[in-house]
Amino acid sequence: MRMVLVVACALIDADGRILIAQRPEGKSMAGLWEFPGGKVEAGERPEACLIRELSEELGISVKEECLAPLTFASHAYEDFHLLMPLYVCRRWQGTPAAQEGQTLKWVRAGKLREFPMPPADEPLIPHLIGLVGV
Ligand SMILES: Nc1nc2c([nH]c(=O)n2[C@@H]2O[C@H](COP(=O)(O)OP(=O)(O)OP(=O)(O)O)[C@@H](O)[C@H]2O)c(=O)[nH]1
């Protein structure tokens, strides 16, 4: 099966809340909430990809040393297998603002289950609760 490498990031604010983004209409899995990030391009380092995606999607600037790996998702979708490292980041420059029509929301880790997420993301939630509490 085709393996797709996607990097994602849980931005954590000073209050311990996590940023999620709702996929806009017209995209696959529209309406679901996800962590900012995207597909790693050919020849691209995962961290560089994440810094690029955070800039494109949220308009923020992140330094590589502010990205810490937390866990990863490995999920068999019907047409591809998703391998998705999840980083956490508590420090960035600028204020996250939707650049691509997404809806953004800061939520407590313990409330993430109230937002429908892609199936690959569900096993990530306990790791975030373990990191920041409910
Ligand atoms: N960024 C992100 N992508 C995720 C998450 N969970 C998850 O299953 N994905 C999947 O990983 C892929 C990320 O693709 P992308 O964001 O770069 O590209 P896209 O939606 O424009 O592409 P697509 O329309 O081909 O899915 C999508 O298939 C998306 O559904 C997540 O938490 N964050």
From TrEMBL:
Enzymatic reactions: 8-oxo-dGTP + H2O = 8-oxo-dGMP + diphosphate + H(+); 8-oxo-GTP + H2O = 8-oxo-GMP + diphosphate + H(+)
Keyword DNA repair: yes
UniProt keywords, alphabetically: DNA damage, DNA repair, DNA replication, Hydrolase, Magnesium, Metal-binding, Mutator protein
Pfam families referenced in this protein's UniProt entry, alphabetically: NUDIX_4
Start and end residues of each Nudix hydrolase domain: 2-130
Cofactor(s) the protein needs: Mg(2+)
Stored InterPro entries: Mutator_MutT (IPR003561), MutT-like (IPR047127), MutY_C (IPR029119), Nudix_hydrolase (IPR020476), NUDIX_hydrolase-like_dom_sf (IPR015797), NUDIX_hydrolase_CS (IPR020084), NUDIX_hydrolase_dom (IPR000086)
EC number(s) given by UniProt: 3.6.1.55
Homology family: Belongs to the Nudix hydrolase family.
PANTHER family in alphabetical order: 8-OXO-DGTP DIPHOSPHATASE, NUDIX HYDROLASE FAMILY PROTEIN
Name recorded for this polypeptide: 8-oxo-dGTP diphosphatase
Organism: Pannonibacter anstelovis
